[in-house]
Amino acid sequence: MTHPTDHDPACIFCKIVAGQIPSRKVYEDDELLAFHDIAPWAPVHFLMVPKRHIASMAQVTEADQGWLGRMMTLAPRLALEQGCRPYPEGGFRIVVNTGLEGGQEVHHLHLHVMGGPRPWLKG
Ligand code: 5GP
Ligand code: ZN
User: Fold this and answer.
1) How many Cα atoms are found within 13 Å in the side-chain-facing hemisphere of 11?
2) Which CATH number describes the domain made up of 12-115?
3) What are 25-60's pLDDT values in tens digits?
4) The pTM is what?
5) Which of 66, 69, 82, 111 measures 20 to 30 Å from 58, CA to CA?
6) What's the 67 CA to ligand 2 centre distance in angstroms?
7) Euclidean distance between CA atoms 120 and 46, whole angstroms
8) Is residue 53 among the annotated active site residues?
9) Distance from residue 41's CA to the centre of ligand 2 (Å)
């Protein structure tokens, strides 16, 4: 495990992890939290974050392979649980916006997991 207590008091997702801002939880364990996006683009749209504060994918190192791999392998299971239809008719989209030109608005690394019947609001 990396440092699950690392925390940025100014970060909105750290506040969600700490329970200081409410969220609709999808999944939680020692290292990871998943919760519904407040402004969904798709019928299923949740976010997956490491509990420890890490700003973006631009900062990951080999030390992050464990939780990052777990997050990616957990995403398909949670997508199905949240109502995405099975592959190949259904499926889902995983997006990790990184940096300003990558469209990142919240600077705490997060996976968007989106799916469900089309049309979607965006994308
Ligand atoms: P980004 O553009 O950084 O990839 O995406 C940030 C996402 O976080 C957006 O989709 C936005 O709707 C979501 N978001 C921002 N603030 C909150 C919040 O307070 N609660 C939840 N659940 N989602 C949020
Ligand atoms: Zn944070």
Assistant:
1) 21
2) 3.30.428.10
3) 999 999 999 999 999 999 999 999 999 999 999 999
4) 0.96
5) 82
6) 16
7) 14
8) no
9) 22
